[in-house]
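Entry for heme C complex. Fields follow.
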Amino acid sequence: MFMRTAATFAAVVATSSILSTAAFAQQDETAAHGQVDLGKTTFAQKCSHCHGPNMVNSGTVTPDLRRFPDDQPRFVTTVKQGKNGRMPPWGDILSDDEITALWAYVSSRRAQ
Ligand code: HEC
């Protein structure tokens, strides 16, 4: 009798922890999609006239951001401070959340 109860209890615990792990994974994915969407909108408003709509760009005048390395600190530094007087600084205009979202969007478009 006791054994059966214990086994049932263990099964319930195991099942519910699987379910809650799945729920967390789902939430993470939803959050990631939200970030990419926000980044995409911000990019369209602030960056696309130089870096190309949806990042499609020949890479001759401005760098092709689909080829930017997987280097978030470098991305954040450039976006905040600008570069070589040609890439404008955005530190006073964009929030850290918007820059993080831009990074999520750039990462989602990275060429393999
Ligand atoms: C006025 C045109 C212009 C706008 C607007 C612009 N950029 Fe740039 N961006 C440039 C140019 C030009 C460079 C190349 C700078 C260099 O290497 O001399 C550059 C370079 C970059 C780089 C590469 C920096 C590196 O470390 O190699 C990143 C990343 C970048 N831009 C992101 C963005 C993002 C994100 C936005 C929107 C918030 C944006 N840019 C808006 C012109 C622009």
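NOTE: The chain has four helices and no strands.
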